[in-house]
Amino acid sequence: MYPAISRLASHTRSTLKTPSLALLPPLHLYRRLLRTHRQKLPADLRVLGDEYVKSEFRLHRDIDNPVHIVGFLTEWQLYAQKLEGDAWRGEKLDRGKIEKMSDEQVGQLYEMMR
């Protein structure tokens, strides 16, 4: 029975899309995002990005739902990793993420693209 479990575990690990990552505490992640913006973005995009990060973290400061907190921190951490690696240049938005957005979020995205 043990070989079947190990085979299942190895199959599960190999089919995961992203490796599990240890989430940074919110303040560390916030500082990392602002530092990455300072290092990687041109001045006009940096201002926009810094304002957006500050606004989002301020809006989510009093959230109590652990699932929401984990999702929020995970997405921001993945964003920071992409930005640090320059993998974001020329990349298009994932259709699945756009479909999950609220009407307000789509409106914000449209305003940023103008």
Structure description:
The protein has 114 residues and is mainly α. Helix content is 73%, strand content 0%. It contains 6 helices and no strands. Helix 2 packs antiparallel against helix 3.
Key features of this structure:
114 residues; mainly alpha; 6 helices; 0% strand; disordered N terminus
> Order of SSEs, N→C?
HHHHHH
What's the average pLDDT?
80
- Terminus-to-terminus distance: 59 Å
SS-based class: mainly alpha
**Care to count the β-strands?**
0
Beta-strand proportion: under 5%
Number of DSSP helical runs: 6
- Global Rg: 17 Å
Biggest sheet, open or closed, and with what strands and sense? none
Based on Cα principal axes, name the global outline. globular
Low-confidence stretches: 1-17
Give helix % range. Answer: over 70%
Can you describe this structure in just a few lines?
This protein has helices at residues 2-15, 26-40, 43-59, 66-85, 95-100, 103-113.
Secondary-structure blueprint of this entry?
Layout: H1 2-15, H2 26-40, H3 43-59, H4 66-85, H5 95-100, H6 103-113
Helix pairs in contact: 2-3, 2-4
